[in-house]
UniProtKB/TrEMBL annotation:
Its main location: cytoplasm. Keywords: Cytoplasm, Methyltransferase, Nucleus, Transferase. This is Calmodulin-lysine N-methyltransferase. It is found in: Cytoplasm; Nucleus.
Length: 356
């Protein structure tokens, strides 16, 4: 593993423990069928008290609150304001979308979280409701990172310059697939394929709505719809036979805040391995390349990232892990003095995976 990761035991601080207990009591007190407003949840939780890194200016359109409990927002990137994405987000979080006390672990960050211990791990695929709650900070950070890298000409290596179009996929993108949309918008006009996915059907339905709202920015308003293939698909990592025509196809695969499902690590790695473009054999000389790149953004949460990185290395990937990959993210983290900011839980690490 290259680079350093912040994996110390800050999360075991008393404050963190108290907040986990508070959240656990609060969630337990909400009866079945009730809902929790995002504001209430924000005011109670460690996980959500540090909600955003402020990398997008967020505005709500007048009259944007619709009867179906979703609100329409514009997310405008702070450094590249030409990237303005329309998102639909929940006004209220269904109680079934909250983490159960059992899933919260013991407050010492020994999380017992598994797919099956998340309430609402629904019957419609292998995803779960955690992606239907909000845009989690790792997704915001990954969206920002791909925009910054693309604008600096560093997202897609030069060796792919000759390719006819860039193909991007997001895994576990939740209800907006913001990072995939951001990459698509920032890579225009080189983008040719954008595949946004999640294992959860509800998340996919909303992501499809977001994709439709952003067609214009992906195509540049020109009549390029026939040139760009952009779609949402329900993709569970455990599904060994998904869309075989997508195998080995993607220059870039993105994934945010999906590493705390430890029992799914191997399936996620197999999925990355299938989707990423294969390296060209060294024999082809000057055109050889190392294959596609996966960018995975997630907080450490105990040893979650380390464990995932070790498995990925064993599966033949080079893995770089960094906690200092972007000046804005580092500044915000350094300036954040509040007790509710626990780096182990809230500072997203950036993992870069390429085939060895
Ligand atoms: C914490 S949410 C993160 C959502 C989004 N990336 C974000 O950060 O806002 C984790 C997402 O991973 C998806 N997921 C979990 N396990 C999965 C699996 N085995 N296959 C596909 N998706 C999965 C869930 O459905 C959920 O949307």
């Amino acid at each position: 593993m290259n680079g350093e990761a912040a994996t110390d035991g800050v999360a075991s601080s008393t404050v963190a423990r108290q907040r986990w207990r508070l959240l656990s009591r609060a969630v337990a007190s909400y009866g079945q069928g009730k809902s929790v407003s995002v504001k209430e949840l924000n005011s109670l939780t460690t996980v959500r008290q540090f909600c955003q890194f402020g990398l997008f200016d967020i505005t709500e359109a007048a009259g944007a609150r619709s009867a179906d409990e979703f609100v329409e927002q514009t997310w405008q990137h702070v450094d590249h304001p030409e990237i303005r994405l329309q998102l639909y987000l929940r006004q209220r979080v269904p109680a079934t979308a909250c983490l159960t006390p059992a899933a919260l672990g013991d407050g010492n960050n020994n999380s017992k979280t598994t797919n099956s211990s998340i309430i609402g791990s629904n019957q419609s695929g292998n995803g779960n409701n955690t992606g239907n709650i909000c845009v989690w900070p790792s997704e915001e950070v990954l969206a920002h990172y791909v925009i910054a890298q693309a604008k600096a000409g560093e997202l897609i290596p030069k060796e792919f310059d000759g390719d006819s179009g860039i193909r991007v996929c997001e895994l576990g993108g939740g209800l907006t697939c913001l990072a995939g949309l951001a990459a698509g918008a920032a890579l225009r006009p080189r983008l040719s394929h954008l595949l946004l996915t999640d294992g959860d059907q509800l998340a996919c339905e909303n992501a499809a709505r977001c994709l439709t709202a952003n067609r214009q920015i992906l195509t540049g308003g020109e009549d390029q719809t026939s040139r760009i293939e952009a779609r949402v698909a329900q993709l569970a990592w455990e599904d060994a036979d998904f869309d075989k025509h997508n195998y080995g196809r993607f220059h870039l695969v993105l994934c945010a805040d999906c590493l705390f499902f430890r029992e799914s690590h191997r399936a996620l790695i197999r999925t990355l391995d299938k989707l990423l473009m294969l390296p060209t054999p060294a024999a082809t000389g000057s055109n050889k390349h190392r294959g596609g790149l996966a960018l995975i953004c997630a907080p450490s949460r105990g040893r979650g990232v380390e464990d995932f990185a070790r498995l990925a290395e064993a599966a033949g990937f080079d893995v770089g892990v960094s906690d200092n990959y972007d000046p804005r993210v580092s500044q915000t983290a350094a300036a954040e003095q509040s007790a509710s900011f626990v780096p182990d839980l809230h500072l997203p690490l950036m993992l870069r995976l390429t085939r060895r």
